[in-house]
Amino acid sequence: MVSEKIIDLLKTELPVQQESLVLTGEVATGLVLIDLVNGFCTVGAGNLAPQVPNKQIEDMIDESVRIARSFCKNKWPIFAFIDSHHPDIPEPPYPPHCIAGTEESKLVPALEWLENEPNVTIRRKDCIDGFLGSIEKDGSNVFVDWVRTNQIKVALVLGICTDICVLDFVGSALSARNRRMLVPLEDVIVYSEACATYDLPVYVAQTIEGAIAHPQELMHHIGLYIAKGRGAKVVSEVICDTQLMP
Ligand SMILES: [Zn+2]
């Protein structure tokens, strides 16, 4: 465990101001779910899955389910990325994971129902950055088309890992927005309480040849900090209040 003192120090030196988001349905908002798959979330499911129950990941799934249910109830658009790799194409520096057609490359049990919802677009991707992973052979981009078709102004992003797939997607989406490729998208918002990253403490990493330590709390925070620095908004609370709808 990284000591509380270090985490507090990091949060003081690299503060991330967080707001609350109230969803009323007035602003076209799309939900982007990143890699809520067994291979990253379900205990013992694979090389990159948690080996023991992990609270940050459990909390992320609970919050994701709550938000996804609210979006489906209101028929608001959802775009769900699923990490999915060809067995013969490695993704260094990671060990084999989320091979297409396996349990690892499926949504977690609590979110499997999303596959049958009409407002959900599912995109299987074979790279870290979902924006790049949305490019089709003909050069079109499924995510760009989703924003345009649904006239999305706000993309609410959550999932795993805060400092890897979430961060890369957010960075690319912001660059694409700034290049006017994502009109009418205005804001990319990261929901911190529904994001998580993996835990590889220093004392464990030292026992694995070539492994890079990845303390969960620290890296989650750094992911949020960098996302904010790139121009994302970060919220720590999402209130779904369609009662406020006109
Ligand atoms: Zn992958």
TrEMBL record:
InterPro entries, sorted: Isochorismatase-like_dom, Isochorismatase-like_sf, NIC1
Gene Ontology biological process terms, A to Z: pyridine nucleotide salvage
Tree of life domain: Eukaryota
A single GO molecular function term of this UniProt record: nicotinamidase activity
One Pfam assignment: Isochorismatase
Isochorismatase-like domain sequence ranges: 30-199
Record family assignment: Belongs to the isochorismatase family.
Protein name listed in UniProt: Isochorismatase-like domain-containing protein
Organism from which the protein derives: Nepenthes gracilis (Slender pitcher plant)
